[in-house]
């Protein structure tokens, strides 16, 4: 019986016979076509189709933005009509109940212990829309709950599906259809369970409303690090390939169906709110932070410097009185 041979380029065992039968020039190790796959980087963790992966300078800028400023809880409301006028761009997290929306929001703001948003093992924990702001804060107590220019708001929504309620959904739908400040809805899909029919329904709704949206695969640690023990490089490689296959499968399910209004960004972000990679950084979080800044128009330049505010764009989006339109 031929003994296995560990190729030190691809760190995978191949049979000695198979290895000998190929000359060095011909031999393409199974992993060589995917350089650097054994370390998690923005480009091999996430699946970018429409935009280039952010550079290190850009993710560092995004990380700094979300971790060096204090997030503020602004308000909770069950009703779309209670959303106040605001000049700040908004981003929302949507998805089935228990998919990890509130956990992701805590991880986004780097608040794993002093939790901003309530998290629970039981589905249906978030019952109202909870709004948090960061950046653009003015000094002084009067302006405490005010998010000014350069800041953004994140809206954590109740989930749909199991243990959810119809009335919660109605108000979220009104928000998705009517809120002028909403720049992008991030739809979370559990990496283990994939796209469900309820997700397809929401995608259809977002397309019809012309609401920009993007998919986040949540809980990717369950695919990449399924056991408590760190996987071997070989296993991690296979798990990354599995994650890529999941991304492709998900992408085919979220493609627009020829609707001219559809605004789907087909880059898929892969995140974990639980599992950290190097130096305590949660998987995919800096890329998510970057995507939020891009959606809000507050991203840095390519070299990681703060971008000058585009006054023309502001005039177009903010309106004459400097305040966005109220709700609908
Ligand atoms: N393994 C793993 N578990 C996670 C992750 N994110 C969240 N969870 C767990 O999933 C469960 C649900 O998390 P939540 O953040 O409350 O989910 P949600 O989407 O806000 O749920 P609702 O508010 O009920 O709609 C909790 O037990 C979390 O600890 C993750 O990235 N990886
Ligand atoms: Mg929640």
Automatic annotation (TrEMBL):
GO cellular component: a single term: mitochondrion
UniProt protein name: GTP-binding protein 8
SUPFAM superfamilies hit by this protein: P-loop containing nucleoside triphosphate hydrolases
Annotated Gene3D superfamilies: P-loop containing nucleotide triphosphate hydrolases (3.40.50.300)
GO-annotated molecular function: GTP binding; metal ion binding
Family per similarity comment: Belongs to the TRAFAC class TrmE-Era-EngA-EngB-Septin-like GTPase superfamily. EngB GTPase family.
Cofactors demanded by this protein: Mg(2+)
Keyword tags: GTP-binding, Magnesium, Metal-binding, Nucleotide-binding
Boundaries of every EngB-type G domain copy: 87-298
